[in-house]
Specification:
The chain is an alpha+beta fold and 338 residues long. It contains ten helices and ten strands.
Length: 338
């Protein structure tokens, strides 16, 4: 729908709870339980609140079609296949990766608070959404979170090494005190190492290639989804993930670390602006501010976003929630917000 993860210039604002109920209703139509429908809708709305629209409710129609068409299990039975003091592996039973990763992250946080560090892999599932959804769960426990994912991928021998990786996401979340937490959440690193970039700067090419190779290895190979054998499941799972959690208190007092983060982020925010920017922020800062604003005012839904979701409502024969909020229309290009 859109890959511009910034607030739209024009559209309407919808309360988050209305969007959650609407999206959950979509998933109910394809066999999800009420509990899981609400959970998955909540994850997508959280991304919209942060203006990460590429991984928000725009994904709902694709997910629902996959479940309707029998490619993704709407009611997976998760299974822990490895359980040691600091490591967990979870089989997602052909369902959406959100459920396996939620379970894995909850277990990993508990283990990290006991052992200091812990990690997990998940396998045999579909998309796990925005990587930052999972890394950020560690923040409320005074921990650092890391999450990567890869889809099933085999290098094409007819391609150059520029096609050697899967393009999966990487997220690292680090708490602060009064300042917004640091949340790096990005994917599609393959755009940074095209053959054209190689000709311009081989060093830049191989640095970017190395980042995505590490993501492919951790989120794919280590998660067990690189194996070429034919799947025996009726579903079509194609993704895995690797997550890790680090308890800050094992390295230094949490209050001291938060104060240092606040000092660092505060110093960064005093630096000069880049061209065509309005604020100086580290990754995650703007999304943090947008989330606070959108929780208060409602999710900004662009005309295209609304159009596609209304098409989804028709496809799954459910009611659209947008009509009553026409009076919340905004157009920042005509009337800049304060």
């Amino acid at each position: 729908m859109t890959s511009r993860n910034i607030p739209p210039d024009a559209g309407i604002r919808i309360p988050a709870e209305e969007v959650r109920a609407f999206v959950a209703n979509i998933f109910l139509q394809v066999g999800m339980t009420p509990e899981r429908s609400a959970e998955l809708a909540d994850y997508l709305v959280r991304s919209d609140l942060r203006c990460v629209f590429s991984h928000g409710t725009s994904q709902a129609i694709g997910y629902a079609r996959l479940m309707r068409d029998g490619k993704v299990n709407p009611d997976p039975r998760l299974r822990v296949t490895e359980d040691s003091p600091s490591v967990t592996t979870i089989d997602g039973d052909g369902g959406m990766g959100y459920f396996a990763c939620r379970e894995a992250m909850q277990i990993t946080i508990r283990k990290a608070l006991t052992t200091g560090t812990a990690a997990a892999t998940t396998t045999n599932h579909h998309h796990f959404g925005a990587a930052g959804t999972w890394s950020r769960l560690a923040l409320e426990h005074d921990c650092i979170g890391l999450a990567v994912s890869s889809h099933r991928f085999f290098p094409n021998p007819e391609s150059t090494v520029a096609g050697a990786v899967s393009g999966g996401p990487l997220s690292i979340a680090i708490p602060a005190g009064e300042q917004p937490p640091f949340v790096f959440d990005a994917g599609h690193f393959e755009q940074l190492y095209t053959e054209e970039i190689y000709l311009e700067s081989p060093q830049r090419f191989f640095k970017a290639l190395g980042i995505n190779a590490a993501v492919t290895i951790l989120g794919g190979l280590l998660a067990g989804i690189y194996r070429p054998e034919v799947q025996t499941t009726r579903w079509e799972p194609n993704q895995g993930s690797f997550i890790a959690v680090f308890d800050i208190s094992r390295f230094m007092p949490v209050d001291q670390f938060r104060a240092e983060m606040d000092r660092y982020i505060g110093d960064v925010r005093k630096m000069k602006l880049l061209p065509q920017t309005e604020v100086t922020m580290l990754p995650g800062g703007l999304e943090y501010l947008w989330e606070q604003e959108n929780e208060r005012l409602g999710i900004p839904v662009s005309d295209l976003h609304r159009e596609r979701l209304e098409e989804t409502a028709k496809e799954f024969a459910i009611e659209s929630p947008f009509g009553p909020y026409e009076n919340s229309r905004f157009d920042s290009s005509a009337s800049p917000s304060s």
